Amino acid sequence: MSENNNNRRYKRYFVDGMHGNLLYSSDLEVLNISIDGAAIETTKRLELNREYTFKIRYKDVNLTLKGRVIWAILISKEKKDSKTSIPVYRSGVVFADTLSEKANMLLNFIEEHKIKTFESRLGTVRFKITNTDNIKIDLPYRYKVKKISLAGMLAETEYPLEIDSHHDIELFLNNIVVNIVGRIANCEKLERGKIVIYNNGIEFMQMSDRDIKLLENYLETLEDA
């Protein structure tokens, strides 16, 4: 079903069952790291064989790396300043694109922050570093699409999103993933009894030509429905 508004450049469509992931930068603990990969701890489970984005802030430069999870286990860990145990996920990641300039930047970052050197079981030299505050991981948080157009969408989440923040977004069109950079235009809190949800207006800021065409073709199928 479509919604036509003369004040809008693109027609909006009501949809049901469409969803995706919004990638949200989160803290992590780096147990050890090399230019080939890292062992990390997160509070959210990482999927085996999935590729995640890692962001390292180094000398006013943002270094972005892709890393694939090759192993993951659940452990129990005590909270700081508390005897309470919490579940923590420990994972091994292999970096996919540490070539040329990125490799040099990562190596320089490790050299400046390393406090211990040791050999991994695979013979790779790994380093423990002093501070991991400058390293983030983009974790996927699920959303549900209520309305969509070529320019943006109305998405329902279980968590509030910061207005004017920009996020990498995965939109699932059947078995195809469309990648979008989106801006949170507005966020409305809704209460349904004890359940709280948020309606977020998301403006599409950047898409590849391929992804624009994929979304356009999908919306045409809604037009014919």
Quick overview of this protein structure:
By secondary structure, the protein is mainly beta. It has helices at residues 100-113, 209-224; strands at residues 2-3, 12-14, 19-27, 29-33, 37-42, 51-58, 61-78, 85-95, 114-119, 125-129, 135-148, 152-157, 166-173, 176-192, 195-206. Helix content is 13%, strand content 58%.
Structural account:
- With 225 residues, the chain is mostly beta strands.
- The protein folds into 2 domains: 2-22 and 140-224, predicted glycosyltransferase like domains (Thrombin, subunit H); 29-131, Thrombin, subunit H.
- It is built from 2 helices and 15 strands.
- It has helices at 100-113, 209-224; strands at residues 2-3, 12-14, 19-27, 29-33, 37-42, 51-58, 61-78, 85-95, 114-119, 125-129, 135-148, 152-157, 166-173, 176-192, 195-206.
- The strands form 2 sheets. The chain has a 6-stranded antiparallel beta barrel.
- Strand 13 and strand 14 form a beta hairpin.
- The N and C termini lie close together (7 Å).
- The mean pLDDT is 87.
Blueprint (SSEs and pairs):
Blueprint: E1 2-3, E2 12-14, E3 19-27, E4 29-33, E5 37-42, E6 51-58, E7 61-78, E8 85-95, H1 100-113, E9 114-119, E10 125-129, E11 135-148, E12 152-157, E13 166-173, E14 176-192, E15 195-206, H2 209-224
Antiparallel strand pairs: 1-2, 2-11, 3-11, 3-13, 4-5, 5-8, 6-7, 6-11, 7-8, 9-10, 11-12, 12-15, 13-14, 14-15
Name the CATH superfamily assignment of the largest domain: predicted glycosyltransferase like domains
CATH class of the largest domain: Mainly Beta
Distance between the termini: 7 Å
Proportion of strand residues = over 45%
* Number of continuous helical runs: 2
Query: How do the strands line up in the largest sheet?
Result: 3-11-12-15-14-13
Tell me roughly what share of residues is in helical segments: 10-25%
The tally of beta strands, per DSSP, is 15
Unreliable sequence segments: none
Q: Could you say which structural class the secondary elements and strand pairing correspond to? A: mainly beta
CATH architect. name of the largest domain: Beta Barrel
Reported by name, the CATH topology of the largest domain is: Thrombin, subunit H
Mean of pLDDT? 87
* Rg over C-alpha atoms, rounded to the nearest angstrom: 21 Å
The H-and-E topology, N to C, reads as EEEEEEEEHEEEEEEEH
| Global geometry | globular
Question: What summary fits the major beta sheet?
Answer: 6 strands, antiparallel, barrel
| Count of individual domains | 2
